[in-house]
Amino acid sequence: MLDAATVVLLRDSDAGIECLMVRKNSGQAFGGMWVFPGGRVEEADGTGVEGARQAAVREAAEETGLVLDAAALVPFSHWTPPTTAPRRYATWFFLGALPDDAADVIVDGGEIGDHVWTPPAVALERHGAGEIELVPPTWVTLQRLAEAGALAGGATAAVEGASGGEIERFKTRVVIEDGVLVTVWAPDAGYAAGELHAPGARHRLVMDPAGWRYERSG
């Protein structure tokens, strides 16, 4: 399993808080998907969360041309893929606010084919309408950001609010029921045994073709 890092870059706009998303070109890992800027942690980046910070900054510069301050990135979550994933990347997600003096986004045209600044809720709506493809960590991150009040104070306040908070860790288990893929995380009652109907807490993403549902309770 490889280490990776991604940065959820936020900015204020007339439409509210927007996040930067990029589309991977075909032939790349997650080709065709809309993701946040990021990629593998290289040996020169270092190790652990600090190495991931450096990787997030480096990848953002390579993919978008944006120069970010590693110290300004706030760890938001960590994702471990299921053992059945064809490409396994243990990925740190960071939150960051777009610097005031940031240049325009210029995608590299090789690995990245397009970009968009979008309110998280709009990205989720586009996914639900079948207009864009997302992977579960991206979808859940957008959902968390889109929750009422999460971005009410603006981009900088959202990043500052996450600083010092608990870094949520998602170690993914996949269960298929009636042909529907369900990703499950602790402390879901069905996590250990892969039994979706076990009574108790819920923490899962039901990837129903009719519409994805994030269930969290208990």
What does this 3D model show about the protein?
With 218 residues, this protein is of the alpha+beta class. It has 2 domains: 2-171, Nucleoside Triphosphate Pyrophosphohydrolase; 173-218, no CATH class. 21% of the residues lie in helices and 34% in strands. It has helices spanning 48-64, 120-128, 136-146, 155-162, and strands at residues 2-13, 16-24, 34-35, 38-40, 74-80, 89-97, 112-118, 168-171, 173-177, 180-184, 202-207, 213-217. Strands 1, 2, 3, 4, 5, 6, 7 and 8 form an 8-stranded mixed sheet that branches. It has a 4-stranded antiparallel sheet with strand order 9-10-11-12, covered by helices on one side. A hairpin with an 8-residue loop joins strand 5 and strand 6. Helix 2 packs across helix 3. It is globular, with a radius of gyration of 17 Å. The model has no long low-confidence stretch (mean pLDDT 90).
Key descriptive features of the protein:
Nucleoside Triphosphate Pyrophosphohydrolase, eight-stranded mixed beta sheet, four-stranded antiparallel beta sheet, 2 domains, 218 residues, 34% strand, 4 helices, alpha+beta
Averaged pLDDT, please? 90
What overall form do the CA principal axes indicate?
globular
Stretches where pLDDT is under 50 for at least 5 consecutive residues are: none
Helix percent reads: 10-25%
Give me the Rg, rounded.
Answer: 17 Å
Rounded to the nearest angstrom, the distance between the terminal CA atoms is: 31 Å
Q: What is the level 1 CATH name of the largest domain?
A: Alpha Beta
Tell me the β content.
25-35%
Structural class: alpha+beta
CATH superfamily of the largest domain: Nucleoside Triphosphate Pyrophosphohydrolase
Alpha plus pi helix count? 4
Order of helices and strands: EEEEHEEEHHHEEEEE
What would CATH call the architecture of the largest domain? Alpha-Beta Complex
Which fold name corresponds to the CATH topology of the largest domain? Answer: Nucleoside Triphosphate Pyrophosphohydrolase
Total count of domains: 2
DSSP E strands, number? 12
How can the largest sheet be summarized? 8 strands, mixed
